[in-house]
Amino acid sequence: MELHSFIELIGGLILLLGGGHYLVSGGVCLARRLNVSTLVVGLTVVSLGTSAPELLVSLHAAISGHPDISVGNVVGSNISNIGLVLGLSSLIFPLVVRSTSIKFDWPVMMLTGVLLYWFGFDGEISRFEGMIFSLGLALFIVYSFVKSGKDKTIKPDVRVKYKMSLPMAIFIILVSSAGLLFGARILVRGATDIAQYFHVSERAISLTVIAVGTSLPELATSVVAAFKKEADISIGNIIGSNIYNTFGILGLTAVVKPIKNISEDIMKEDIMWMLGFFVLLFLFILPIKGGKITRLKGVIFLLIYGAYIYMVFK
């Protein structure tokens, strides 16, 4: 293995982070013109932008014949979004659950995990199953917008403003998308070379290094939201991103190219950890209205996440 493998890994992460950041900026600018509420921006526009790195990585990995990277990236990102991102965010400022929409969003996230376990238990996610995932995402987006329009208690957030014209926003979206595409390609190639050199499985690399790297946009978004005491953006972004990761990323990936030969470790161990984090999040946000993810709960998230990482490399 040569030095260029590490350069590709780091360079790919940088391109993914930069591309995800500017994709969010351009996307939020367009969303503001539509007068979309804070919560819906967190659940749709921001979540889509911050999930873009995972999408490009999983899609390229599936096409290149690396199913464990494709699925492990999504499962690992879902785990790190809750264990690492929400854990760190709640340490900065305890996150109060103010939105009753969590009553719908969390069950949808749990449904994505159960369906992933069910569909992938045979070691494959077929094109038809990918279409079901994609349909689920479409229905979730439609419901989010419809509910936002009916809920008079949710007001548009006018504090976030991007001073850019519509053509500039579109240009930024196109350029950032190109950066994401190239970054995903070199990241997968570099990570594969490193895994082979150190005799580490692609599963371990995808669940840790790649998953955390592609989750950095969620981390940045949620940490900033925590500082601004925007619990709806922080928690909504995490739940929305996890829904996008499974329904959107694996759905689109499987539609383009069915994902085959998924390792048993991912299906029997890692997905169970992911479902466990989903259940723990639900317990931590009880009661749904007025619940709080305290600093102590954040520490518990981080400790359990650390135990999971240890298990992966054990």
Task: Show the helix and strand layout.
Layout: H1 3-33, H2 38-63, H3 67-92, E1 95-96, H4 102-120, H5 127-150, H6 166-197, H7 202-227, H8 231-256, H9 264-284, E2 292-293, H10 295-313
Antiparallel strand pairs: 1-2
Helix pairs in contact: 1-2, 1-6, 1-7, 2-3, 2-5, 2-6, 2-7, 2-8, 3-7, 3-8, 3-9, 3-10, 4-8, 4-9, 5-8, 6-7, 7-8
Give a short summary of the structure:
This protein is mainly α.
Structure description:
The protein is built from 10 helices and 2 strands. The protein is an all-alpha fold and 314 residues long. The chain has a single domain, classed as A middle domain of Talin 1 (Up-down Bundle). A two-stranded antiparallel sheet has the order 1-2. The protein is globular.
- Proportion in β-strands: under 5%
Supply Rg: 18 Å
- Main beta-sheet strand count, sense and barrel state: 2 strands, antiparallel
- CATH topology category name: A middle domain of Talin 1
Q: What string, H for helix and E for strand, traces the elements in order?
A: HHHEHHHHHHEH
How do the strands of the widest beta sheet line up side by side?
1-2
Chain-averaged pLDDT? 81
User: In the CATH hierarchy, what is the superfamily?
Assistant: NCX, central ion-binding region
Poorly predicted segments: 152-161
Helix content: over 70%
Features:
single chain; 314 residues; mainly alpha; A middle domain of Talin 1; two-stranded antiparallel ribbon; 2 strands
